[in-house]
Amino acid sequence: MLNNTNNSPLFYEYYAQWVDVYKKGAIREATMAKYLMTQKWIQKLAPELKVSELTRTAYQQILNDYAKEHERQTTLDFHHQLKGAILDALDEGMIERDPTRKAIIKGKTPRAKKIKYLNQFELHTLIASLDLSEEPNWDWFILLVAKTGMRFSEALAITPSDFDFARQALSISKTWDYKGEGGFLPTKNRSSVRKIQIDWQIVVKFSELIKGLPEDEPIFIGKSKIYNSTVNDVLTRHCKQCGISDISIHGLRHTHASLLLFAGVSIASVARRLGHASMTTTQKTYLHIIQELENKDVDLIMRTLSGL
Length: 308
Known about the structure:
Blueprint: H1 11-22, H2 29-45, H3 56-67, H4 72-91, H5 120-129, H6 138-148, H7 152-156, E1 163-164, E2 169-172, E3 175-176, E4 184-185, E5 194-197, H8 200-209, H9 228-242, H10 249-262, H11 267-274, H12 279-285, H13 287-306
Antiparallel strand pairs: 1-2, 2-5, 3-4
Helix pairs in contact: 1-2, 6-10, 11-12
């Protein structure tokens, strides 16, 4: 890396080289894209700033300018990506003090995000409308996501060998690179590698569907490139034909989790089934549902105590 403090490089150039040396080939393409976007923002916000000029004030100004157009969580992610490179510059003697120390993270007020999901009747109506032919199609894909809560890329990567019909289990250990050139990729995180239970209907239906299919090849991947929008369009048509709420494939994942929570399944079990890294992620994502359940619990507690 560059370490001549007498000829200090521009900050965005140093960061670009740091990403190339330390991140390229070591992280997922989606994560790499975020680092490259951060690089573009540094060049935009501080095009003439040199590494040797990185003071706490200069760094805080970069964060403040970035926060004007982004929510606080996005600004925090931006800060973390910059901090890795800056601490390495500190170790190399390019700067004398850590300019990221006591950084203040600001950001725009986040927009209210309402998760779209189907209720139990709507999901039942959707599943009843699916055209489950003898060959794999997107209707089969929709059924599998609805019944398992898998991510889009995880469901694309499912092969016949991932099913254990005797134990009514499905192994999720990889994803499909639908945004790139295709092929298997690792899961989003370690917690995403999991085995989930599948109901007897999935066992019966899919045991017939995958007969004769190559054991280690994706069930739903053909010769043409897969787009998320293609499958969402199929789902949208079904929703409109059924007269139910219009949701996306990711909305089916939310539907799956929501129905389990309303049925009384613990947050810990739902988190493991979804492949969340921690229960905190589940709690944040489904906060509105958890609050509804807590209100029901209060009513139940009061009825129970009143009967004593």
